[in-house]
Amino acid sequence: MKFQKSIIFTLFICSVSLIISGCIKQFEKDQAPNIILIYTDDLGYGDIAPFADKATITPNLHQLAKDGITLTNFYVASSVCSPSRASLLTGSYPLRVGIPRVLAPHGISWAENIWRTGLNPDEETLAELLKEQGYNTALIGKWHLGHAKEQLPMQHGFDEFFGIPYSNDMIPSVNPSYPKLPLIENESIIDENPDQRFFTKRFTEKTIENISKNKNTPFFILLTHPLPHIPLSTSPEFENKTKEGIYEDAIHEIDWSVGQIKSKLLELDLEENTILIFTSDNGPWLAYQTHAGSAGNLREGKNTVFEGGHKVPFIISWPSQLPEGKKLDGLVTNMDLLPTLVAWAGGTKPRLEIDGLSLIDYLEGTSNQSPREGFLYYYNEDLQGIRDQRFKLLLPHQYQKPAGDSINPGQQDRFVTDSIPLSLFDLWKDPGERNNIAEDLPEKVKELQTKLEREHQKIMGGRRPSGIYEGPEPPTGKLWIENY
């Protein structure tokens, strides 16, 4: 009798434990996940582990991949920064939302007609959609979607902004027409031409501060490192740390940043329910040679529609929800992050049409195929190609590439103009786009040409304007007019 009671009691305790455990797991699943999205600048497909043999230089990223999922066919919607960031935040092709080109301050000849341009306030950004779900939202690092006060991150759904309004090379020492590079906190300039050696460290510290401050509420942090965009620099403790040159030193410090963020999440018991993403805005700026990254075995880099410009590393970890150590080869884009993250947070897509698709079933493993069937390649306003799951068609066009001359470290190589005829590539067999098989597969060429025109017309028919700053032009050397 005592033995039976003991068994019954033991079974009761076990049942209660299982129920409690199940309830805890369900409670964790029902909590809105924290989201940290790290967006680097000009980082190439061959720059970090596990996409290249870089485990000693990027050990934290290598471990992040072991803890989560790597996507081997992740594409950004533009091979330059402003359009890529517009796509990330709106879930749309840059042409659809009126940001097909790189933005820059006034006074620069090539920016004469675009310095007033910024992201349209009518666009519902990733930050705004998450904010509607109760998230605290912060952008830390580089913005580059409009630099007038009414175009800054806090006008687009971010509760906080700490960083620079555009690229770190848009400085007077590069071109005297540029105003002094401002460091902005929320909507105030707190420094001009700050010491760039401390960018990675300062933005990491600000991220950790934000995590600690918002540990009891869902938060979204978009950490947009200005590096490894030129001019390259590192904090003193990372100078010559890798013995491989300043580019690798800068990557190593970014990897350190990832490690610091993960440590803080562990310390605060937030890691299990935090989505941590690491990727890049576009491929490497190869014209800077020793100060540029690597696209691995891919062709060309930034400023082109070849794979080296659009295909970038991507790692995502969410320990309580996603599998560990998984590699997915399906076609995915940065436009797909908005509908995916917003849905995970319990929200809905924007009211305006977007081009992104939810990846939830694919990432969680309930579907073995990506929902994305194709991708259009644009350079500025020009449509130059399309791919499906396997094949890529490029229209005839000219492009610029570095000449490969010997130059001094940190200086831009001269460009030469090259051209490509109508070309078809089998990306499964030829990811480096070396073998044009258009003549061998004329029916595939025709099929992709038809799809290209159809999908392009959809975007053209749904184009929306950018936001335009209507105020006066600032004085020479100033970002804003006085007392504005």
Automatic annotation (TrEMBL):
PROSITE patterns: PROKAR_LIPOPROTEIN (PS51257), SULFATASE_1 (PS00523), SULFATASE_2 (PS00149)
CDD domains on file: GALNS_like
Pfam families: Sulfatase
Keywords: Calcium, Hydrolase, Metal-binding
Domain Sulfatase N-terminal positions: 33-346
InterPro entries with a match to the protein in the record: Alkaline_phosphatase_core_sf (IPR017850), Sulfatase (IPR050738), Sulfatase_CS (IPR024607), Sulfatase_N (IPR000917)
Gene3D superfamilies: 3.30.1120.10, Alkaline Phosphatase, subunit A (3.40.720.10)
GO MF annotation terms: arylsulfatase activity; metal ion binding
Family: Belongs to the sulfatase family.
Annotated PANTHER family: ARYLSULFATASE FAMILY MEMBER, ENDO-4-O-SULFATASE
Name recorded for this polypeptide: Arylsulfatase
